[in-house]
Each structure stands twice: as structure tokens, then as C-alpha cells.
Amino acid sequence: MLFKRRESESLWERFRVWLWPRRSFSRSLQYFSKRILRLNASPHAVAAGVAAGVFASFFPLGLHFIVAAVICWVIAGNLVAALLGAAVGGNPLTVPLLWGASWETGKIILHRHAPSHGPPANLGDMLQHLSFAQLWHPILEPMAVGAVPLGILFGLVFYCITRWGMGAFREQRRRRLAEKARRRGGKVSSAAGGIGSATQ
Questions:
Q1: What angle do CA 133, 151, 48 make, to 5 degrees?
Q2: Could you tell me if 86 and 68 are in contact, meaning their C-beta atoms sit under 8 angstroms apart?
Q3: Which range of residues forms the domain containing residue 76?
Q4: In-domain check, residue 200
Q5: Going residue by residue through the chain (200 aa), what tens digit of pLDDT does each one get?
């Protein structure tokens, strides 16, 4: 395959790249934004897909892409845009902030007060044994409840930003193509005029 790596990346290398991109986070963000803007779909579908991905980013790990796909289907969004939005929102820099905000918001909604020292003392044992029943009440339930209002709020914000960006990007591309066509037409006309005057 053209441009294929000579050596396949190991699982550790892929994990390292996910934690820290090869170039930089800003370059990666530019790459994802251009991929989103160049999707061949309606502005609503792309913006709705990104909103679904951002909404899903507030949910606990393992549910991102499932929630993004379901919400995307419900609001008629673009699935590729949803997956890209979830990938951008679920990066190592934003995940602790999003999950912390979801947990704190969920505690407020559920009128639940955590101990002053923070998470449960046996959280390490819960995570080690991956006990869903034990994790649900103190951790996962507040995160899932808090993720809904935050996801809706930020999803709407990113919907508006993406919808505006899609319109501006496509209008700029339309003008650029029209300018190229006008220049090409002018060159053809001048060439035709030169040939006509030479034959007279």
C-alpha cells in the first residue's frame, strides 16, 4: 500500500501517540478540524455529528463512541464527524476536566455530598477488580447524570461553531473556485483573441 509504514506500530506506540501526538496538540487539532470541514455532507449533518461527539465526551470511558453513534443517529448527524468529535473531546488533556466536571455536576444534581478527602478510600480496589456494581453508585452514576446537561450545553455550542465554520469554509472555497474559473476563462478568451487576430 502507498505511504504504508514499513514497520507496524506496537500497542505501546499507539498508546503513546494517543497520550502525546507526534507533532503537537495544536497540529492535531488543526488536522481534525480540516478533516471535519472537508466532509462531504450537509452543514447540519456535520455540525450535528460533532455535537454528538462532544456530548459523548462527557460520559465515562468506554461509552464515548457508543453514545456518539446513538445520538448521531437520533439527530441525523454525520457518523464520521461524530467519531472525530468524540476523538477530539476525548483527548488526554480534556478527559480529566470533562470527567471531573461531570462528576461534580452529577453530585449537585443528585444532592450527594462526597467526603472531604475526595473519592472513596477503596477506589483503587474498585478499579483493580473492575466491580461495576461498586463503581456505579459513588463514581459512574454521578458522572452519567452530570454528563447530560454539560454535554447538551457544550454540544449546542460546538454545533453553532461547526455550522458557522462549515458555511464560511464552503463559501470561501466557492469563491476560490469561481476565481480560478474566471481566470481560466480570461486566459482562454485572450488566447482565442490572439489566434483570431493572427489569422486575419
A1: 125
A2: yes
A3: 11-192
A4: no
A5: 444 455 566 655 554 554 455 555 566 666 667 788 788 888 999 999 999 999 998 987 667 788 888 999 999 999 989 988 887 777 777 888 888 899 899 999 988 755 444 555 555 555 555 566 677 777 788 888 999 999 999 999 999 999 999 888 888 888 888 888 888 876 655 655 555 555 55
Encode the chain in three state secondary structure: CCCCCCCCCCHHHHHHHHHCCCCCHHHHHHHHHHHHHCCCCCHHHHHHHHHHHHHHCCCCCCCHHHHHHHHHHHCCCCHHHHHHHHHHHCCCCCHHHHHHHHHHHHHHHCCCCCCCCCCCCCHHHHHHHCCHHHHHHHHHHHHHHHHHHHHHHHHHHHHHHHHHHHHHHHHHHHHHHHHHHHHHHHHHHHHHHHHHHHHC
In angstroms, how far is the first alpha carbon of the chain from the final one? 56
Whether residue 130 lies inside any domain: the answer is yes
In a domain, 3, yes or no: no
pTM of the model: 0.69
